[in-house]
Design brief:
Blueprint (H helix, E strand, L loop, with lengths): L20 H8 L3 E5 L2 E4 L1 H20 L3 E2 L5 E3 H7 L1 H4 L5 E4 L5 E4 L4 H11 L8 E10 L14 E11 L2 H20 L6 E5 L8 E8 L5 E6 L4 E3 L13 E15 L1 H5 L3 E3 L5 E3 L1 E8 H11 L1 E2 L2 E2 L10 E5 L5 H13 L4 E4 L5 H11 L3 E5 L3 H4 L1 E6 L5 E5 L3 H8 L4
Parallel strand pairs: 3-7, 19-20, 19-21
Antiparallel strand pairs: 1-2, 4-6, 5-6, 7-8, 8-16, 9-10, 10-13, 11-12, 11-13, 13-16, 14-15, 17-18, 21-22, 22-23
Helix pairs in contact: 1-8, 2-6, 2-8
Length: 410
């Protein structure tokens, strides 16, 4: 991709509306466009990152045997009245009537809708168990939208729902999702912790939260620095009795054993092997997809800009052309790297070197390659690792090997 032809429009100034580091960097580096407070559009760079996050999530959901669907964003209020959550979530629900006077809302979550779908088709234990999931936009009328995608009115979530005949089945699916979440979050370079949590408005018997320590977090966990353990409640460490310290946390995932709260209220029953009517046993499993974009930006950055992990960076390499005469060489490097499966943002703009370096650091692709005047004699490019700052001089015919090594794709 040539920078000169791209829709990347970074800003020199810090945006005035920015409320935290990630918000500032994502706006300044042009990953996000702020439509209005709490409402964002994902620009090409941001959408590339989100697409990669989604791909990682989808892969693990599919490996766990979950099946993808896509539910409606507009939902009738009457399904919410069955569980009473039209009242519980009243404050944050975007409600409206259509021209036929139907009471509708923009889905803040999808437990009620999935239960309606499943009960329409499932009537025997023989059709169980299964897990359904979607990656979709959700809406909450946040009283205080803040910190960009951390707390926004419109956001993208992955939500999965498991259906079983008994609690042993739920336990198996719950552990399956728990494992899948670890594999997923390990790929985002987030220093996450898992804590037992209160199921709250979702209901059910047990839940676990996946949390990332960050100054802008709105949840608090208590940390024992000796045992490296986090606790939900202040009180001395249960293992070593040392004092624990509060740490602010951002929630990126939450899994719940819902049990029969929804199936009973919505009459989602199936026949068990003795022919008795039993309510479905449910679990639900959420990941804040757009929030991960912000959480990674918040925790992986420096004074110069963003530092994306290789797994979700918009491009693998930013290639700066600092000598116009080397443009053809640069394009040939781009083309063989692309053939190897690496994506390259070629900065071919007429701007001064300083501007190009600033933008390369700000955007934060994992490698910055420089092809400058020295190349004429040396036939070597300089490659900088954005995260470590380590620099390498590499001959053109060794570039392929270097990236194969760095990405373990040999
Ligand atoms: Zn301890």
């Amino acid at each position: 991709m040539l920078y000169s032809k791209s829709f990347i429009n970074t800003s020199r100034e810090d945006p005035k509306v920015a409320e935290c580091k990630s918000h500032k960097l994502l706006l300044k580096a042009n990953f996000l466009y702020m439509v209005s407070s709490g409402i964002y559009s994902y620009l090409p760079l941001g959408w590339k990152v989100l697409t990669k996050i989604n791909k990682i999530i989808k892969k693990q959901m599919d490996l766990a045997g979950a099946q993808e669907l896509f539910m409606s964003a507009v939902q009738p209020i009457d399904i919410w009245e069955k569980t009473g959550r039209d009242k519980d979530l009243e404050e944050v629900m975007f409600r409206f009537k259509d021209r036929k006077d139907r009471n509708l809302c923009l889905g803040p979550t999808h437990e009620e809708e999935i239960t309606e779908i499943v009960k329409r088709y499932i009537n025997s234990y023989k059709q169980l168990p299964f897990i359904l999931y979607q990656i979709q936009t959700k809406f909450r009328d946040e009283p205080r939208p803040r910190f960009g995608l951390m707390r926004s009115s419109e956001f993208i979530m992955k939500d999965a729902y498991s259906f079983d005949i008994d609690s042993q089945g739920l336990e198996i699916n719950y552990q399956k999702m728990h494992q899948a979440y670890k594999v997923i979050f390990d790929q985002f370079k987030l220093n996450y912790v898992i804590s037992e949590a209160d199921p709250g408005a979702m209901g059910g018997s047990a839940s676990h939260e996946f949390m990332v320590p960050a100054e802008i977090g709105e949840d608090i966990l208590y940390f024992c620095s000796k045992c490296k353990k986090y606790y939900k409640k202040e009180g001395k460490c249960l293992s070593c009795q040392s004092e624990t310290k509060p740490e602010k946390m951002v929630e990126i995932g939450h899994i719940f054993k819902l049990g029969t709260k929804y199936s009973k209220a919505q009459e989602a029953f199936v026949l068990d092997k003795d022919g008795k009517r039993k309510p479905l046993i449910m679990g639900c499993y959420g990941i804040g997809v757009s929030r991960i974009l912000s959480a990674v930006a918040e925790t992986n950055s420096d004074d110069k800009g963003l530092i994306w992990p290789k797994t979700i960076a918009p491009f693998d390499v930013t290639l700066l052309i600092l000598d116009k005469e080397q443009t053809q060489e640069a394009l040939s490097i781009e083309s063989f790297l692309q053939a190897e499966g690496f994506s390259v943002l070629v900065d071919d703009r007429k701007d001064p070197a300083g501007v190009k370096f600033n933008d390369a650091y700000l955007i934060g692709n994992p490698y910055i390659m420089i092809i400058g005047k020295n190349y004429r004699k040396s036939k070597k490019v300089e490659v900088e690792n954005r995260e470590t700052g380590q620099k390498h001089e590499i001959a053109k015919d060794k570039i392929k090997d270097f990236f194969r090594d760095e990405y373990n794709t040999k």
